[in-house]
Design brief:
There is one protein chain. By secondary structure, the protein is mainly α. The chain is 28% helix and 0% strand. The chain has helices spanning 5-8, 10-13, 44-49. The chain is elongated.
């Protein structure tokens, strides 16, 4: 199952109304460039992440 950053780190995605300073921990992520439908069976996206 994919890690959902928005659920785990709500304090970063639902900030308070007043500006505050926060410390964001190190996080790993993957960025994929490409075009097309990510749900396509043999599409460019699926080939890129394999």
């Amino acid at each position: 199952m994919a890690f959902d950053y928005k659920k785990e780190y709500k304090e970063f995605y639902m900030p308070p109304k007043n500006p505050t300073v926060i410390d964001v921990p190190k996080m790993n992520y993957v960025a994929v460039r490409g075009k097309g439908d990510p749900n396509e069976e043999d599409g460019e996206y699926k080939r890129s992440i394999s």
